[in-house]
Amino acid sequence: MPAKIYTDKDADLKYLAGKTCAVIGFGSQGHAHALNLKESGVKVIVGLYPGSKSRQVAEEKGFEVFDTGEAVKLADVIFVAVPDTKIPAVYEADIAPNLVKGKTLLFSHGFAIHFKTVTPPADVDVIMVAPKGPGHIVRRQYTEGKGVPALIAIYQNPSKQAKKIALAWAKGVGGTRGGVIETTFKEETETDLFGEQTVLCGGVSALVQAGFETLTEAGYSPEMAYFECLHELKLIVDLMNESGIAGMRFSISETAKWGDVSVGPKIIDGSVKKRMVAALKDIQSGKFAKGWIKEYEGGYQTYKKLLADGEKHPIEKTGARLRGLMPWIQKKNLKGAQASY
Fold first, then answer.
1. CA 49 to CA 38: how far, in whole Å?
2. Are the beta carbons of 248 and 262 closer than 8 angstroms?
3. What is the average per-residue pLDDT within 182-194?
4. How far apart are CA 202 and CA 35, in angstroms?
5. pLDDT in tens, 305-329
6. Active-site residue, selected from the candidate residues 31, 33, 109, 114
7. 3-class DSSP state for residue 125?
8. 3-state class of 194 per DSSP?
9. Is 313 in the active site?
10. In sequence order, what are the beta bridge partners of 45?
11. In angstroms, rounded to a whole number, what is the distance separating the alpha carbons of residues 142 and 139?
12. Whether the model pTM is above 0.90
């Protein structure tokens, strides 16, 4: 049975009226939620630790900024917009001591609740509003009068108003313009991690780099390899986004279609799917979460090295030079554009 899709008519901002909403963190999702809610007429404050570089940014955007604990104390709804690995420490130090009966704790990802790195008291609502897109897209779509589709989930509902609050928040950030689907913390967390690792980020990045390497190692120019393995990817993904895989195939040449259906399955074959299944099992069992938390506790050494190695890949230098020749591509340096907390 298809999931019910909630739109603007199913949500009412009155469930946030008269409430103070605290956004803890002013990074990618935090700044987008705070600004969108504010422009939707919701009272929003920002909570940050004393030395946060985001304080000045938030204040310049017109927000009252408080230390995290004070923001939690003042708020009725608390949005924890802090990286997954940092949530436990922030929760124990500043959130938990100021949570009282009747408040609502809100997340945009289910990691901390599902893997129990935090355990909220039973007398507060615990909900999730998860836009299906990065914060800068959530913000941009809202300012254009559109919205990024979102998920909502209810983990605890002592007030019996949790779903209405979640839908109101989703409406405030623009999610109901794109459509909202109800899920669970478990389903959102496990599918989100799987998608990031095997398809959307990890899978695509590795596929693009491998294609680039195969062509350049065979003697083809890096410029040709870049165009064929990275630049044109957006054109194909846009077609898929607009019309599905079948619609994309309708729009490409017969030669491209034949290569798609006859060669593609030989590259992404059964062995890849088996490794995807293994990755999913690591997510479901908590093995990935434990390893990621351990990596954070160890100072992100492997994480930083892998990112640095990726930035040195030849495709990055080639891409930067070619994008510089394309004035129609909006140049963006998203690295460090928003501090996370």
1. 21
2. no
3. 97
4. 30
5. 999 999 999 999 999 999 999 887 7
6. 109
7. strand
8. helix
9. no
10. 22
11. 5
12. yes
